[in-house]
Amino acid sequence: MSPREKAHNLRPVLIASSFAAMLLVLAMFMVPVTTQAATHTKDVRGYVYDADYRKIGGADVTVRMLDSDLNQRSIHNELSSSEPSTKGYYNLQFENAEWEITDTIQVIATYNSQQTDPNTTVATNAFFQWLNATAFEFEIPQFGSTFGLLLTAGIIGVVAVTVLVWRRR
Known about the structure:
Layout: H1 3-30, E1 42-50, E2 60-66, E3 72-79, E4 89-94, E5 104-111, E6 114-115, E7 119-122, E8 128-130, E9 133-136, H2 146-168
């Protein structure tokens, strides 16, 4: 086979490879680099609970929408319900310009100057999402840390020794 015939046989392969490479490059440009914008409002709702899962009314609930870089896109807050039938319930509505699909929804509640740890989830295309704020610690302050526990145990020990020595006299 002459070099000319070999080149002639390779021409369809080169054309097909070039066409496939062009399609691949075009496909890469068609991949969206941003998230999909929301087309409707979103309600974020849930309950505020303490560490024993009792509903807490009157807690200040803050809900943030965070973008993919965890920068704040929007924020809303309200008090959780104190009504007996809906105690601890909150519902905050975000307009379609205030959130996007795949944003991070973050909920933090504050009650009696204590704050819950942030609870997060990813925003879906649903009209509402549930996200609770949980774990207010209602503990005895002296037992709330290792130092407090040791200090309290030390004080109880000193009192016990004093009582025992006092009784012997």
